[in-house]
Design goal:
The complex is a heteropentamer of chains A (about 180), B (about 160), C (about 400), D (about 160) and E (about 375).
Chain C lengths: L6 H18 L1 H11 L20 H9 L4 H9 L2 H6 L4 H23 L16 H10 L11 H20 L15 H9 L2 H11 L3 H32 L4 H6 L11 H15 L10 H4 L9 H26 L11 H22 L5 H28 L5
Helix pairs in contact in C: 6-15, 6-16, 7-15, 8-10, 8-15, 10-11, 11-13, 11-17, 13-15, 13-17, 15-16
Chain D lengths: L1 H15 L14 E2 L6 E3 L4 E3 L6 E3 L9 H7 L5 E5 L11 E6 L8 H5 L5 E3 L14 E2 L1 H4 L9 E2 L1 E4 L2 E4 L1
Parallel strand pairs in D: 1-9
Antiparallel strand pairs in D: 2-3, 4-7, 5-6, 6-8, 10-11
Chain E lengths: L4 E6 L2 E2 L2 E2 L2 E7 L2 E8 L7 H5 L7 H6 L6 H16 L5 H29 L3 H22 L8 E2 L2 E2 L7 H24 L2 H7 L7 H7 L4 H4 L7 H4 L20 H25 L18 E9 L2 E9 L5 E7 L1 H13 L6 H8 L4 H5 L1
Antiparallel strand pairs in E: 1-4, 2-3, 4-5, 6-7, 8-9, 9-10
Helix pairs in contact in E: 3-4, 4-5, 4-11, 4-13, 5-6, 6-11
The chains are: A mainly alpha (about 180), B alpha/beta (about 160), C mainly alpha (about 400), D alpha+beta (about 160), E alpha+beta (about 375).
Amino acid sequence: MMGVLVGKLSEVIEKVVDEPLSYVINWGRLYSLWPVHLETACCSAEFGACHGPRFDAERFGVLEAFGSLRQCDLLIVFGTVTRKMMPRLKLIYDQMPEPKYVIAMGACAIDGGLYFDSYNVLPGIDKIIPVDVYIPGCPPRPEAVVQAIMMLQEKIRRNKAIAIGSWIRKKFLKKG
Amino acid sequence: MSLTTERERALLDKIKAKFEDVIKEKYVKPKRIRIDVSPQKIFEVASFLKALGFNQVASVAGTDYPSSNEMEVVYHIVAIDNELRDIVFALGERVSRDNPIVPSLTDVWKSASYHEQETYEMLGIKFEGHPRLERLLLPEDWADIPPLRKEFKLPGRE
Amino acid sequence: MGVITTFEQFLVRILQILFWLLLLIPMILTPIILLILPYFDISSLYPLVPFKERVDYNQFLKFLMDPTLVFPYLGDWMKTDFFKVVIFPGFTFAALFSGVIITWWERKFLSKVHNRYGPVYAGKFGGILQSIADLFKLLFKEIIIPERVDKLFFFMAPMGTLAISGALLALIPLGPSTYIARSNLSLLLIFAVLGFYPIVVLLASWASANKFSFIGGLRSLHQLVSYEIPLLLSVLGIVIMAGSLDLIRIVEAQVSLWFLIPQFLGAIVFIIATLAELERIPFDLPEADTEIVAGWLTEYSGMLFAIIQLAAYLKFYALSALFTVLFLGGWHGPIFLPPEAWTIIKVFLVMSFLMLIRGSMPRIRIDQLIRIGWVWLITIALINLFIALFIYSMGVKF
Amino acid sequence: MSLAIDLISAINQAIKNLFKRRITLRYPEVNLDIERGYSYDPKAQVGIAGYKGRHILHLEKCTGCSLCAIACQNIANCIAMVKLDVSYPQNKKSIFPQIDYGNCVFCGFCVDACPFYALFMTNDHELSSTDKKSLIMSPLQLSIPPVKKKGLVQLEIDDRGPYHK
Amino acid sequence: MAERTLTLSIGPQHPGAGHFRLIVVLDGDIVVDVKPDPGYVHRGAEKMAEYRTYIQNIPHLERPVIIDSSGILFPYVLASEELLDLPPPPRAQYIRIIMAELNRIISHLYWLGIYGVFVGHTTMFLWPVGDRELFIDLAQMIAGARVTFAFFVPGGVRNDIPDDFPDKAIKVCNYYEKRLKEYEKIFFYNPLVLKRTQGVGILKREDAIELGATGPNLRGSGVKSDVRKDEPYSSYDDIDFEIPVYKDGDCWSRCMVRLGELYQSMNIIKQAIKKMPSGPVKNAKRGVLKGIEGEAFARTESARGTMAYYIISDGKPYPYRLKLSVPSFRCLSLMKHLLVNQHVADIPAIYWGLDYWPVEADK
């Protein structure tokens, strides 16, 4: 009896609270991705082109590289991360406020790319920070970056920003 | 493009006249001269070259020769804005691999400073008299041997 | 704090949001409540609402049958101080106009200068909801409080900037009767309120415990202090010509001729000093991102940052409106539009012009900035003052 | 005075650009028209100009000689030879190249290395993925020609500036 | 003294310095000491080159400076051609010149865009980055990639230019020459830009030579030095062009040199298209490429200055030692000289005025 009641309650909360609020929050998040200004290697030149008038990532609400990382949500790792850069990258990721997203741009950031046998290059950034979208290419075309941003938006849209209903279900139904 | 080497010969003769016994001619190609000097005498030769008009260092290249247990440092010197501007002069020296110490030419050419620092870092050749022999490009926690030595193998190779 | 999965997190978040809503939204919600209140017995609430007489239910039913009967009451209500402070010339209108429309328009307008589109996809029409999206994102963003900051001032400073910008709005008239407060000294009061801004900025930068913040705060202090003097001097000519410090009196003096024409030099000085006061390009030194990261904003995140931005845009609006009132004849214009509309159109044009300067100028250096302020602007402002005195002594009356 | 003129002419230049064309390519709706991919003529030993995008593999021509893998070995090390369940007469061992786009740098030297006209490049460049594994393309995936894109435009120039048509 | 000063670390995460760190000591608003800290992008290209054949070296050797990738490959192919004995056919030399000059324009426009940001001029970031796409499209027509072309190979170039390239290139060049006039009005002769850049970071002629400046930095100090004229390689001696030289040695001179080079590069492209002979584009020699024993030193003028390669071969398909001498690396010695006793706000203006591309310097 209790279980049915809690189940119904969680469903109602999911419908009434979770879904509309999640929609609104996610809508704000996905059109307002501000990238951190962190240039790790040469792909940053093409990221600049992506913000140029031709590809104009600001159409999606992505500002051109922003001042302070305290206000940013998106960490785009432009290419190679060397052993000297690795601790800094981790630090920068930790300093960003939640929620934060990471895009690995270029072959070097995904797997090491050309520098698979270099003595000073980290083969793939997903070993130290979680990555949301990978953009292959060396460097990727700006269209590919825009496509990745759209992919990330899709990912944010599907993500549940608030999940009270399922929390209630998990907590109370197991006990009962 | 002239393929004769008369000017280069004349230039080399001028240097040879001054330093008869210390320099060793390696090659004379059109617009390229290479001589080898012993590390003890390189400072004098370099000063003379600068007086001739070679006023900038384009590159300092260190090379490791484990087969003959030697290391080589080559200064590529160019002349900016004078009549020697089309000639690249290579000034080489060789030291033993066991204790690679050579005099720094920073006092002759200031432009050699960062190149020498890089060579020190990448090959472990010490430049005596260099103001700043410290870590430049490699990470702060680098504890391996200098990477451009031949016994340093890339990860996953051989 | 990305995905909220537990009830505790949800409660915390809701409390946080309530805090921000309490700060911002009442200005939008209260008018609706006040619209309904008159229909009920509200004798106990007399001090709050405009209607001194008792409204009975019959009246309410009548309104339901014929909604047009509400309008006279609405008109009465719109004349109350509460409405003025909170809604129309006051906070809500200014915040919506400067925080939503102007931020969007700035991005679109500059994009056109850059030969590109700017925001497109947020909102159906040309990305018009872009700033709302930014606001929603910042509402739900984590606020990072670094360990070594002075928490009290770190939190107070954004509120301080908002309060100062909001206070500026009170004194600026948008129409002959559309103003919040009228004073014989309103022009002077505006400068008095502006004078608090550098203190708040310095407090914020000091509280942030960050080198870049601190440099930004010092720059801001230098800049704001040295540009208040030319700003004040540039309007003295107008005070002489209009013979009053009252802004409404000044606008009324411009019926025949805008002060822009006799006081052209003063207008130029005022525009330049305004740009410096607003910390906008070419004077955005306190937030110069390629030099000192984000200046005194470096450590601010989430909603605190949004509050500072809102305050900056409110100040932008207030000073543009001041320029309109002082130099562009305020609400004077052809009769086919209401006076308030003319003021707003002029303010919009002034703001667009300031954006255009942002699109065509680089940032200048702090020593040059101070030099321009203390040497050139003060000189020009003094020349302008003499011109005004000359015109006044010729016996020209405005 | 000249200072004021210069300042005004700078602002004027900004105003003039309000009436110029926008160069923006509205990417998701329209696509840049890149005509063809890079290919190579092994007889003449020269390439044929084209865009270096994703590869296309002609299964019926590939002999499984792994020259492409050898060419790539020291460059990006992204080509691996894998066995397929299909049988072609020219490829007795049924091994074909599989490309890991997480590593590929699109230099096209694998195309130069192929002597049998089997491996070319296409103009496809939209390869982003949320998953690292899906960047590895099997020979069968490589053999599918790219989808023809909608709304192809090209960069044109007229008096009011460059634009896409 | 220690109480008076403030140490700032500009980079590697700083909008004014990408992949590079400047440790700056300030006294008030004045810079007292500067220590450049490069190496955040050191990828060991020289060591990796010893494990790759002459062809396989091409992709990773162009990565250090992808915005000028032909510029960095040009001396490599010249040096390796000397070692491999593979002279390029004449048509290939002209195509190389076109590519190198296109790349010079692309690189200078990128530089100009970032310089705009660094002095706070937002429009000057977006215009050059947008117009750069015109030239990127041209380069993409030839080499099939936006920036990393891998187009030069020892013995020629990889493919011939398409038939419709010459018309399009001349159209773009004609349009852009007009467009540059707008840049001059809004940026180069803008009084505030002049205030920011004139008399800032003065590099005297003697110091420039002594400290090893090269390329536009050297020409901005009044030294007429350009490898394209000093030691004409490829087909540069058939082409008539000028070297812009400015005397003052400040940031503005360095800007104007690059502006002049934009005009000159378009001039060179037009001439090269006209003078281009027909014929093959690649040396027809086949077989495994093995270097002859010996060494070669080749230098060219890339967008940032003299780019040089020193290759030692011991008769194997791999180089025994490859030394890459890049112009950005030489800027390191200029930094301390120029930045000390300047204002904080001038750090970005001087730093990027040198066109220091950290990836290139770190190799």
